[in-house]
Write a sequence for this structure.
């Protein structure tokens, strides 16, 4: 396994309903953007749609999100979100996320901590090596 994490990228456009009275994205939507980004990326990269996720022997829950708001995001603005798994530790995975504008400037950053839950026990359980390997580039050697 390579030590180079796979970087997921998705693009988005601000919708009218996400704006506050100052025509900036309301802070409540940032968490939604980051979670939806991860789910969209998993679907695109691994084919993990809702049915595929339901068939997995584990569930993943977002335990914590730390969001840094760098610049306001305005009406109808296009932006990209990138993310990668920074580390795995027992049942936890630390996911580093960035929201950037078209020029590549940071709009916000997020550190998301997710926990792997075993469906049989409904308890946190360590990530298995084959699960961890999915999130890293494959060695071409």
């Amino acid at each position: 396994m390579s030590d180079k994490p796979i970087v997921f990228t998705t693009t988005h456009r601000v919708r009218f309903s996400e704006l506050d009275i100052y025509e900036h994205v309301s802070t409540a939507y940032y968490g939604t953007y980051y979670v939806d980004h991860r789910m969209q990326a998993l679907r695109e990269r691994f084919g993990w749609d809702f049915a595929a996720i339901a068939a997995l022997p584990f569930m993943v829950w977002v335990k914590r999100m730390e969001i840094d708001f760098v610049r306001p995001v305005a009406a109808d603005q296009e932006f990209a979100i990138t993310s990668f798994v920074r580390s795995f530790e027992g049942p936890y995975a630390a996911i580093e996320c960035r929201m950037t504008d078209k020029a590549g400037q940071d709009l916000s950053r997020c550190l998301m901590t997710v926990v792997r839950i075993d469906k049989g026990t409904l308890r946190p359980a360590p990530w298995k090596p084959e699960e961890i390997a999915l999130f890293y580039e494959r060695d071409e050697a």
Observations:
- The longest helix spans residues 28-46.
- The chain has a mean pLDDT of 95.
- The radius of gyration is 16 Å.
- The first strand starts at residue 8 and ends at 13.
